[in-house]
Amino acid sequence: MTSIGTGYDLSNSVFSPDGRNFQVEYASKAVENGGTSIGLRVKDGVILAVEKLVTSKLLVPQSNRRIESVDRHAGIVFSGLIPDGRHFVSRARQEASSWRGTYESPISVSTLADRMGGYAQAYTLYSSVRPFGITAIIGGVDENGPQLYMIEPSGSYWGYHGAATGKGRQAAKSEIEKLDLKELTLREAIKHAAKIIAVAHEDSKDKEFELEMTWVGLEETGGKHVPVPKELVEEAEKWAKKEIEGDDDEEDEKMEE
């Protein structure tokens, strides 16, 4: 993280001579230390999933959620600093509520992403604040069908068919790229999401994790963003484990040959 000159990482409002904003880059490093989060946009809905690292055996299972609903039709998952993520979600809920109160209709996912991207970007402008130490993935369904966006600490946001962030993002992206997301159904995507998170967790084998997963689809959930039923998550985890073991066996056979 060196540049021409020194001291350019002390404020958001100062660029380095080569045009970099170091505080935004540092925020991105904070994201890389967080658990892996993914979003999959398939033909009939959206899946959000996160690798929730268990930092203490005393924590209550299924508590301390990392995926939150913003409105009935949309949700957010994030990687990075949890307090920053909770504030970001709170602001997103205010935006959704304000839109519903003004226009008497749910906010579109693209508009929500645009507003939250602008909010995140505002935190890169002033020396009295710092950028959000999170990357957020927003997913939902609206009049345009399933929608998925990822918002970075800089405030940049993009529409995706499949998105990943956090510590295992590279491994997760590689797995996502193997899928034909346009042809997958939500129930099929649940299994693949479980496998993607399990593969991304390989670099943190010494730590336990919980798989948290939600979905939203017009047919499966009636357009509501809700947690995936526990029995489906457990079934997906078993399937993912078998698939990963099968892939390992194939690699061993190739090495022997």
From TrEMBL:
<protein>
    <recommendedName>
        <fullName>Proteasome subunit alpha type</fullName>
    </recommendedName>
</protein>
<comment type="subunit">
    <text>The 26S proteasome consists of a 20S proteasome core and two 19S regulatory subunits.</text>
</comment>
<keyword id="KW-0963">Cytoplasm</keyword>
<dbReference type="InterPro" id="IPR023332">
    <property type="entry name" value="Proteasome_alpha-type"/>
</dbReference>
<feature type="domain" description="Proteasome alpha-type subunits">
    <location>
        <begin position="8"/>
        <end position="30"/>
    </location>
</feature>
<dbReference type="GO" id="GO:0016787">
    <property type="term" value="F:hydrolase activity"/>
</dbReference>
<keyword id="KW-0647">Proteasome</keyword>
<dbReference type="GO" id="GO:0005737">
    <property type="term" value="C:cytoplasm"/>
</dbReference>
<dbReference type="InterPro" id="IPR050115">
    <property type="entry name" value="Proteasome_alpha"/>
</dbReference>
<dbReference type="GO" id="GO:0005634">
    <property type="term" value="C:nucleus"/>
</dbReference>
<comment type="similarity">
    <text>Belongs to the peptidase T1A family.</text>
</comment>
<keyword id="KW-0539">Nucleus</keyword>
<dbReference type="InterPro" id="IPR001353">
    <property type="entry name" value="Proteasome_sua/b"/>
</dbReference>
<dbReference type="GO" id="GO:0019773">
    <property type="term" value="C:proteasome core complex, alpha-subunit complex"/>
</dbReference>
<dbReference type="GO" id="GO:0006511">
    <property type="term" value="P:ubiquitin-dependent protein catabolic process"/>
</dbReference>
<keyword id="KW-0378">Hydrolase</keyword>
<dbReference type="Pfam" id="PF10584">
    <property type="entry name" value="Proteasome_A_N"/>
</dbReference>
<dbReference type="InterPro" id="IPR029055">
    <property type="entry name" value="Ntn_hydrolases_N"/>
</dbReference>
<dbReference type="Pfam" id="PF00227">
    <property type="entry name" value="Proteasome"/>
</dbReference>
<dbReference type="InterPro" id="IPR000426">
    <property type="entry name" value="Proteasome_asu_N"/>
</dbReference>
